[in-house]
Specification:
single chain; 418 residues; mainly alpha; two-stranded antiparallel ribbon; two-stranded antiparallel sheet; 4 strands
Length: 418
């Protein structure tokens, strides 16, 4: 036997390693599409099988590549909610863990100065003469009244939000919007949660490829043709990817065969993964800042703003105290109502702005992370597996196909060694 043939198992191992390494990279990168538009491809894509339309860029008439995970950002966000977040907690539970009382205290502490400026600006705008003629002592009394009632107003707002949070906050749309805007979040979920499993996929390609190279060596002796190597490369590339993907998630529950217990690598680490997954979600997705933004800019923003406005509008009456009636008569009802509405409308943003404070977000996110971790640790194995596998199961064929194509190319190169 030609000693050079002994390189076949080694080269098969290299093929397995490289195909798995490249496959993993193509799963996540590039984050944004890289390629060119091809005239007529968009129309042709409609005639292609559904699976080929799913190849990144094809449906848009472009030829190139984008990581499978970031290219499915909206889908990943939807699945993250349906298969994971929605089973771990409701909007009301998330909001309760964020501690509405602490939120109210933080808003009062950071918004008082801005609210003072707001009151002055609106009254000057709507009725400059009245405010200019108001004695400084009376102005300060008005500001003091606003400052004194601000804690009660903010607590009313945060309590009302908590009461109606399920109608005001669409967690699914919020998650989809944030992951779609920054596809790196989808990557982060997989890269951090499945770090050990992804490393296994790459390393296993070397050992599985070398093992599969042994029958290739025998087959090459029986079938005296160098084309055995490219064909075998396809098989090696296919099987190394296929086996590696399957052993990550399957079997979902432990199965004992003789002295050996088989259990999906990812499934064995449920407690550990719970903490990592919860950290990503709590730190970057279901955050106080994102919830605040969704409340005032999301699908139910009008309802949120109306609710907050109703709580803030009486602030002008309370600030003026017994003089409110006389001021209303002096200014005219329409101008007076304009000031009340202006304070209520513009103060909404001042109420929500403090929620974007980074250090405050970090402290509050710890509570959400704790909730998610607690729930994930006791998820049924089937639901736990669904959290990540359902996001890529439809596209596994692409990774396996990539492995086959790379295996064929490596097999062609392998001909040079024999």
């Amino acid at each position: 036997m030609d000693p050079g043939l002994l390189l076949i198992p080694f080269i098969s191992g290299v093929i397995g390693y490289v195909t798995n390494f490249v496959g993993i990279k193509l799963l996540f990168y590039p984050v944004r599409f890289v390629g060119v538009a091809v005239p007529g491809l968009r129309d042709l894509a409609r005639l292609l099988p559904r699976k080929l339309q799913a190849v990144p860029g094809v449906a848009q008439g472009r030829l190139g590549w984008q990581g499978i995970i970031p290219s499915r950002a909206a889908k990943m966000g939807s699945i993250a909610v349906d298969k994971g977040i929605s089973k771990l907690g409701s909007p009301a539970e998330f909001y309760e863990r964020l501690d509405p009382d602490s939120i109210a205290e933080h808003i009062v502490a950071t918004a008082s100065v801005e609210v003072r400026d707001l009151v002055e600006r609106i009254i000057e705008r709507e009725h400059p003469t009245l405010w200019r003629d108001t004695p400084p002592r009376v102005r300060e009394a008005i500001h003091r009244r606003v400052r004194d009632q601000l804690p009660d107003i903010v607590r009313t707002v945060t309590a009302d939000i908590g009461t109606h949070i399920d109608q005001l906050l669409d967690i699914k749309l919020m998650v989809i919007r944030h992951i779609e805007a920054d596809p790196r979040l989808a990557n982060r979920i997989f890269l951090e949660v499945g770090q050990k499993e992804l490393r296994f996929v790459v390393n296993s390609g070397l050992f599985l490829g070398a093992l599969l190279g042994l029958p290739v060596l025998v087959l090459f002796q029986v079938v005296d043709s160098v084309w055995v190597l490219p064909v075998a490369g396809v098989v090696v590339g296919y099987l190394t990817n296929w086996i590696a993907i399957k052993v990550i998630f399957l079997p979902v529950v432990p199965k004992r065969i003789g002295p050996i217990t088989f259990h999906g690598l990812f499934m064995r680490r449920q407690a550990e993964v719970a903490g990592v997954y919860s950290g990503v979600i709590a730190e970057d997705i279901v955050t106080l800042s994102n919830i605040g933004t969704e409340l005032v800019q999301g699908a139910s923003a009008d309802r949120t703003r109306e609710m907050i406005g109703n709580a803030l509008r009486p602030a002008v009456d309370h600030a003026l105290g017994p003089a409110a009636g006389a001021v209303r008569v002096a200014m005219g009802r329409d101008e007076y109502d304009a000031i009340r509405t202006g304070v209520a409308t513009e103060a909404i943003d001042y109420t929500m702005t403090p929620l974007s404070d980074a250090s405050f977000n970090e402290r509050q996110s710890a509570a959400v992370r704790e909730l998610l971790t607690e729930r994930m640790e006791v998820l049924p194995p089937e639901d736990f597996a669904d959290m990540l596998r359902s996001a890529i199961v439809e596209d596994e064929w692409m990774l396996i196909l990539i492995g086959s194509v790379l295996g064929f190319a490596a097999g062609c190169l392998q001909i040079l060694t024999v």
